[in-house]
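Weekly sync notes, structure subgroup
Attendees: PM, AL, DS (notes)

Item 1: joint prediction request from the bench team. They want all two components modeled as one assembly rather than separately. Inputs as received:
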Amino acid sequence: MRAGEKIKTVRISIVGFGHVGSGVAEVVMRKHDEILRKHGLDLRIVGIADLKGAIIDEGGLSRDEIARFGADGALLDMSSLELIREIEHEVMVEATPTNVTNGEPGLTHIITALNSNRHVVTSNKGPLALEYRKLMELAERKGRELRFEATVGGAMPLISLIRENLAGNGITAIRGILNGTCNYILTRMTNENLPYEHVLREAQEIGIAESDPSKDVEGIDTAVKLVILANSVFGMDATYRDVRVQGITEITPDALKLARDAGYAIKLIGDVDINGRLEVAPRLVPVSDPLNVGGTLNVATIRTDLAGDITVIGKGAGPIEAASAILSDIIAIYS
Amino acid sequence: MRISMDIELKDIPGQLVQALKPVSDLGGNIISVLHQRDKKTASGRIPVQLVFEMEESRLDRLVEKLKAKGMHVVSIGKERLKDSMVVILIGHIVHSDIRDTIERIDSTGFAEVVGLSLSMPGVDKKSSAALVLSAIGKKELKEALKILEETATKKGIMIISPI
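Output from the run, pasted for the record:
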């Protein structure tokens, strides 16, 4: 922070307090002093709400108060919508789980927050995959920002990289691995020559795959992320239903071996381009291609008209990684 | 089409240029020239291997021109299929009659299945295959992949193609 600049207090509400929501609370607390020093922003969490109820403190909740959230009965009988509308704050962090059927409850949270003149930062893919244009128009009308870096690629900067650092470039295509669970499964199957079902169970045991893994392994999660890129980067008005999707459940160890013998790895690739291509499918990636990353990593190659191909690799999932993207978005609103 | 041609030149200056000029005059694109001075033939000529791309219809005229200049055309090799791609298939490949799929591609005249490795883990289990498609050009290769995808979808076979 430069001398003479004023400190700006930014009051934040967190709606949805699962892994991501509590991750945000954790990093806001951990990084508070550093952000104050570097950016002149005094970040305060003034309210947290989820299905259980809410806690509020207009002066800013303490670490202890947040830690006790949900642990005992000290919750206000206040709905998340009431909190969004009635408690004065600048930024609403929407971190409820993704729902690609109707986008709820996130969709109503975001609309309510924008209508109450709050900026919105979200990790929730559902509302953006279904109602991108409507939400962006509302944000613009209200003169508020709706930012969503955490929805695609987790901690890996993709949307702001394109918007800010690559401004001036025309983007012709984005292609990559946008789901860490699938990448983990395919990598393990390749390296250990194990069948799909076996590796899936193993991934569930160590928490990399959910007990209902269908969203990940059937390519739905990748498709939803692709739609967000299609709309935000390519100006399409696509929804999740426009994507051709094929998952990884049919991949065999033999296929992985045959591919490797021919110099390829099989990866679940999301592919969007300027001509309207929207496709998620297992593809052959040359072993020497930068898209060939292993484990739970995410990767995306951005094809630009001036800068050529740019590839970003990073951790796609995890509460702290998502919180990192959310924190960057909050700071970006004020810079 | 890509063509490789072995010719033999007299050992006098300027012959190589004389041999290459008709190729470019006929719109050919020379890819490689191997001038083997140290491998003279019994009759004292110098063997030259040329690789170039040219429309097939112009090949006869090229040979005439070379002969008119006193050069020997020893052999002509046509490399018809110059673009190829590996594709992985997963499903009941043999039961659903893979021969039929291959024949459909071979019958196009512009593309062929030139390689196939198959792996069958058990009678009821899905098999996997790596198939090599070749075609006379990039556009035709894409067309062949489309045919493969169409037949595969009908037969419930999954296709994994390169990025």
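Discussion: The first helix of chain A runs from residue 19 to 30.
Action: AL to compare against the crosslinking data before next sync.
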